[in-house]
Amino acid sequence: MSSISDNLQAVSADIRTAALASGRDPQQLRLLAVSKTFPADAVIEAAEAGQHCFGENYLQEALEKMQEVQAKKPQLQLEWHFIGPIQSNKTRPISEHFAWVHSVDREKIAQRLSEQRPAGMPVLNICLQVNISGEASKSGVLPEEAVALAQKIAVLPGLQLRGLMAVPEASDDEQVQRQAFRQLKLLSDDIQAAGISLDTLSMGMSSDMHAAIAEGSTMVRIGTAIFGNRNYAK
Ligand SMILES: *Cc1c(COP(=O)(O)O)cnc(C)c1O
């Protein structure tokens, strides 16, 4: 079995190769290690191998993990990203404990995150989650509503709108994967044409990272390829 540190190296090399193959500068890509369902020790192992940014989906799990990492390794300064569904009664701890939130898809949630961001902390970095495949079951704002929502979020004082995030419908076909990511990129262009500057496209997971990088991703969110398969039953 390969270690987390070996996996991180392999994923970083893979990102670099994919970027170069698309004529892109590998420096434009950030790796978010998605540590949901994995223990604090896995985060520590990745951090000690040089990983700085970690993504979590479940608030309670994330808060406990952050505390444990902090207690065991107070010298580690990690950057935590919230990437899961947000209930409106959970916005306060999210705005108090994370540097980024990728899963904002409603004005009300954005307003609460902005109001509740503690004074003295830097503004909270936001990606607007877009339901790019239009699946009824998925979170995310519909593409046709994204520009209007971006305009509302961009003016909130506690937040900085950085870009867009999407989790497209799963497909093994790289052309289908690329089509969805291309739509997200075009939507980002539309928002920028409306006068809002963005620098982030949070797109690509373990199974569709190459397609996302080819279509302009600036942040890939990788769980399985770093930490292994998740076991939700545990
Ligand atoms: C779990 C998750 C990931 C990581 O997925 P892998 O397939 O394990 O790389 C990325 N983004 C979001 C929003 C997730 O929920």
UniProtKB/TrEMBL annotation:
PROSITE patterns: UPF0001. Its cofactor is pyridoxal 5'-phosphate. The keyword Cell cycle does not apply. SUPFAM superfamilies: PLP-binding barrel. Residues 8-229 form the Alanine racemase N-terminal domain. The keyword Transcription regulation does not apply. InterPro entries: Ala_racemase_N, PLP-binding_barrel, PyrdxlP_homeostasis. The modification N6-(pyridoxal phosphate)lysine is found at residue 36. It holds the Pfam family Ala_racemase_N. Keywords: Pyridoxal phosphate. One of its GO terms (molecular function) is pyridoxal phosphate binding. Pyridoxal 5'-phosphate (PLP)-binding protein, which is involved in PLP homeostasis. Belongs to the pyridoxal phosphate-binding protein YggS/PROSC family. PANTHER family: PROLINE SYNTHETASE CO-TRANSCRIBED BACTERIAL HOMOLOG PROTEIN (PTHR10146), PYRIDOXAL PHOSPHATE HOMEOSTASIS PROTEIN (PTHR10146:SF14). This is Pyridoxal phosphate homeostasis protein. It comes from Undibacterium pigrum.
